[in-house]
Specification:
By secondary structure, this protein is of the alpha/beta class. It folds into three domains: 52 residues, 434 Repressor (Amino-terminal Domain), CATH 1.10.260.40; 139 residues, 3-Layer(aba) Sandwich (Rossmann fold); 131 residues, Rossmann fold. The protein has twelve helices and eleven strands. GO terms for molecular function: DNA-binding transcription factor activity; transcription cis-regulatory region binding.
Length: 346
């Protein structure tokens, strides 16, 4: 009986990679005309059906993906993981979760699990792919041990990162729109009449903080406001850091600003608590808004005016892209547009 050829067989007959055959089948423009003609000739001669590809590849898979997070208690990561797991189950896959517990902790802490060690574990486990959510990759200065571990990981299995794209590293990246989210919320405050705005939260060591602060200042400048006069208190990403930032602002000797822009909802919550503890009411005495919605903030009093990055959609898109990669096709990463949520705090 005649053997049904697989994409691997076609690749061997044409003396090209499996990825090249897949790109020819998908009419991808990243293939030279000469190579395309050679591969297409083999496909035509053997009456190869693309439908055989997925069946042949799936049969050799573990049907398991690794998900690496830096803090599963963080609502941002928890929402992403929830959506990733749901989409995985629908695709017939399961996940193994690795929580490094590194967020909000010092490097070298006994509570922190080194990410390069986790990468080695994932490689040894022969999983089908890995999804990285935050961690060392988001720092301005990424540790060399992490970069070496990432390089090994990329060479071993498909990698998708929700976060920062590093040059010279071949992984699929879903970058959230860090520019529009801040421009949108800053313009909202300006349109409401708030011109003296302070920025609180984030860390100067984290790449995303730099993006958001820079956009905040650029948006003020575009509105004719002296961006150099804006108060910025980079403390970190959790409620206690919002509290600390607000206290520092109140003790700074500066005039009370008209509004505070927090890097995320949790920082905003901490700032609002500190303001209340110091006899101030939001938004009557000072407005507070946030660059990033976290689940549950709509039940906070007052409801926080914030930006929804649509993490539900991001989580689902991650798995769609991973399934595409596992079928040896190039992913098509479409941008997801953030949306303003007008609450009561600003």
């Amino acid at each position: 009986m005649k053997k049904n050829l697989t994409i691997k067989d076609i690749a061997e007959l044409a003396n090209v990679s499996i990825a090249t055959v897949s790109r020819v089948l998908n009419n991808n423009s990243w293939v030279s005309d000469k190579t395309r003609t050679k591969v297409q000739k083999v496909i035509d001669e053997h009456h190869f059906s693309p439908n055989l590809m997925a069946r042949s590849m799936i049969s050799r898979k573990s049907m398991t993906l690794a998900v690496v997070v830096s803090d599963i208690t963080n609502p941002y990561f928890a929402t992403l993981v929830e959506q990733i797991e749901k989409a995985c189950l629908q695709a017939g896959y399961k996940i193994i979760l690795f929580d490094t517990q590194s967020a909000n902790k010092r490097a070298g802490s006994a509570q922190v699990i080194a990410e390069d060690q986790i990468f080695n574990t994932i490689i040894d486990s022969q999983l089908d792919g890995v999804i990285i959510l935050g961690g060392n990759i988001d720092y301005l200065k990424v540790p060399e041990s992490y970069l070496q571990g990432l390089k090994k990981l990329i060479a071993s299995l498909p990698v998708i990162v929700v976060g920062r794209k590093l040059a010279r590293y071949d992984y699929t990246c879903l970058e959230r729109d860090q520019v529009n989210c801040v421009a949108m919320i800053t313009r909202h405050l300006l349109e409401k009449g708030y011109r003296d705005i302070a920025f609180v939260g984030g860390s100067s060591h984290v790449y995303m903080t730099g993006q958001r602060v820079a956009t905040f200042l650029q948006t003020l400048k575009a509105a004719g406001i002296d961006e150099h006069a804006a108060a910025i208190f980079e403390t970190n990403f959790y409620p206690e850091h919002g509290y600390d930032a607000a206290v520092k602002l109140l003790k700074s000797g500066r005039p009370l600003p008209q509004a505070i822009l927090a890097i995320n909802d949790r920082v905003a919550m901490g700032a609002i608590r500190a303001l209340k503890d110091n006899g101030l009411t939001v938004p009557e005495d000072i407005a507070v808004a946030s660059c990033e919605y976290f689940p549950g903030s709509e039940y906070f009093i007052p409801r926080i005016t914030t930006i929804d990055h649509k993490n539900n959609e991001i989580g689902q898109q991650v798995i769609r892209q991973m399934m595409t990669i596992l079928q040896d096709m190039l992913p098509d990463v479409s941008p997801i547009t953030p949306q303003l949520i007008a609450g009561e705090s600003a």
